[in-house]
Design goal:
The protein is of the alpha+beta class. The chain is built from nine helices and 17 strands.
Length: 526
């Protein structure tokens, strides 16, 4: 019966074994299952212990050295030594960073090193791997050991292996299989050094990287701080990671001021987003007369994507107005055409692919209301569809304030038909149900336009129902407008938005203020 040969170390984890051990004390490896050592190859002497007495000692491997290379003195950082014939001395990571190369030397082990152990990277002793059989010469006439010297538990070179140097890192110039001239598996490949015979890796140093080819790392964007708790950072979803407060979006509060027109829009205190939008511009008529334009849109909350509808309508109407006024189109006709252009822009939002409509069959088309004003040297033009409004407030307050638009709403129809008084109609819960809007599912679009020639200076207030709900009558709106509104339109718009927020802010609030007559372009406001 075959008797298993006594093993000095565990074949699996290199743990030192004692005579008579049947299992490894470290990993539990069944030593009786260990393969029988090969008898047809002589073994190499390891740590001075003779191998098979009948076999002659193996000649040391003939490792090439670079011309002029000399052994470097120990720098005190610790070295790693393999325990095969033709030991390979590997410098630690500090030498690698300094550009030093691997040197292959035949040297004896330290006297204070116990047999079966190698010195690790940090100077501690580590267990060496089992001896490796000699390897026949490569086609180029060079030889080198390819055994699993220093192999760790995971199959990689461990504390005493060349590859990894104890932590799994590759050592320059030496690949798996301990053959620096072939590929990782000893068969040759792009990862191995494939230079001519007799030359070492040191003869072909890699060029230093060009610093110009390395792009500088972009500085990280500063983290946004919560506006509520002033302590937590804002996550990608727009909520504070500390208190969970939703952060303001870009459209939650918007302000803009041009030469003689200003506008402010706010989300309000009850809605989770701002579905209003505005567009203001300063233009000039064909004869050079200055003109100011303001468009205000209110998304219909019961529709799909109302915020997109209001934004598309305001941009389309403003662009159409500017182009028409420059061409010399009458402002009232230009306003009519601008509302039609806005309607087409909103209708385009409903042109979704067929699968999208089938996935959401009960969603209605995007929709919004629109109101606008054009102020020139002596003419005031307004246009609207829906229940957003335009108010006229004289600067001297000697004349009455006037509402210049009529709502497309259920309440307005009841009053116009004489079925209810204005107070009764607007007290009904159906009062704000609109009968006219922009959208693909709207009735036939009929823009309302009107032109006025005021005989005195004044202020034009263009707003959504988020404001006029708290100043419905013209007299109430005039009381809310600051006395210096003509000189400070942006401040006046801010005050009016604050008036709505103080009243409860139940809806989005948007207001534009245009002094009449229009100031020349570039004049600005006081």
């Amino acid at each position: 019966m075959h008797q298993p040969a006594a093993l000095s170390t565990c074949p699996s984890c290199e743990w030192p074994l004692e005579s008579g051990d049947l299992y490894c004390g470290a990993c539990g490896y069944d030593l009786s299952a260990a393969p029988e050592p090969p008898r047809d190859h002589p073994t190499l002497a390891v740590n001075g212990r003779p191998g098979d007495a009948a076999a002659p000692p193996a000649a040391p491997a003939d490792w090439p050295t670079a011309p002029g290379a000399a052994a470097e003195p120990d720098n005190g950082l610790g070295t790693v030594e393999t325990q095969d014939a033709g030991d390979v001395r590997v410098r630690d990571s500090a030498d690698e960073r300094n550009g030093q190369h691997v040197h292959h030397q035949n040297q004896s082990h330290s006297q204070n090193q116990r047999p079966g152990q190698g010195q690790g990277q940090d100077g501690r002793l580590g267990h060496a791997g089992p001896s490796s059989p000699s390897v026949p010469s490569s086609p180029s006439g060079q030889t080198g050991p390819t055994g699993p010297t220093g192999q760790g538990l995971d199959g990689r070179q461990g504390l005493d292996g060349v590859r990894g140097v104890g932590d799994g890192r590759d050592v320059p110039g030496v690949r798996d299989g301990l053959d620096s001239r072939d590929g990782r598996d000893g068969r040759g490949g792009r990862d191995g050094w494939d230079g001519p015979a007799g030359a070492g890796p040191d003869d072909y140093p890699l060029p230093a990287p060009d610093p110009r080819a390395t792009a500088p790392a972009a500085a990280p964007a500063p983290a946004k701080v919560c506006v509520a708790c002033r302590a937590g950072s804002v996550a990608a979803d727009g909520y504070c990671e500390n208190c969970g407060h939703a952060q303001p979006r870009e459209r939650d509060h918007m302000e803009q001021e041009l030469d003689a027109v200003a506008a402010v829009s706010d989300r309000g205190l009850r809605h989770h987003r701002n579905e209003d939008a505005f567009a203001i511009s300063s233009a000039a008529l064909a004869d050079g007369t200055p003109a100011a334009v303001a468009i205000v849109c209110d998304g219909v909350s019961s529709a799909t994507r109302p915020d997109e509808a209001s934004l598309a309508a305001s941009r389309a109407a403003s662009a159409s107005l500017e182009a028409a006024l420059v061409r010399g189109t009458h402002p009232q006709q230009a306003m009519h055409d601008a509302i039609l252009a806005a309607g087409e822009a909103v209708n385009a939002l409903a042109d979704e692919p067929v699968p999208a409509r089938e996935h959401h069959p009960h969603q209605n088309a995007p929709a919004c209301t629109l109101v606008g004003a054009v102020v020139t040297g002596g003419l005031l033009v307004v246009g609207w569809v829906g229940d957003s409004r335009v108010y006229w407030v004289p600067v001297d307050r000697t004349g009455p304030a006037v509402r210049l638009t009529e709502d497309d709403s259920w309440a307005a129809q009841m009053v116009a038909a004489g079925l209810m008084s204005e107070a009764e109609a607007y007290a009904d819960e159906r009062a704000h149900a609109i009968t006219g809007w922009l959208g693909a599912d709207a009735y036939e679009l009929e823009p309302h336009t009107a032109s006025f020639k005021p005989d005195r200076a004044g202020v034009v207030v263009v707003c959504t129902d988020g404001l006029w709900n708290y100043a419905e009558a013209a007299e109430e709106m005039a009381a809310a407008v600051p006395a210096d509104a003509a000189e400070r339109p942006l401040h006046s718009a801010q005050v009016l938005v604050g008036h709505a927020l103080d009243g409860g802010g139940h809806d989005n609030v948007t207001v534009a203020v245009l002094p009449f007559p229009a100031a020349p372009r570039g004049a600005g406001s006081a």
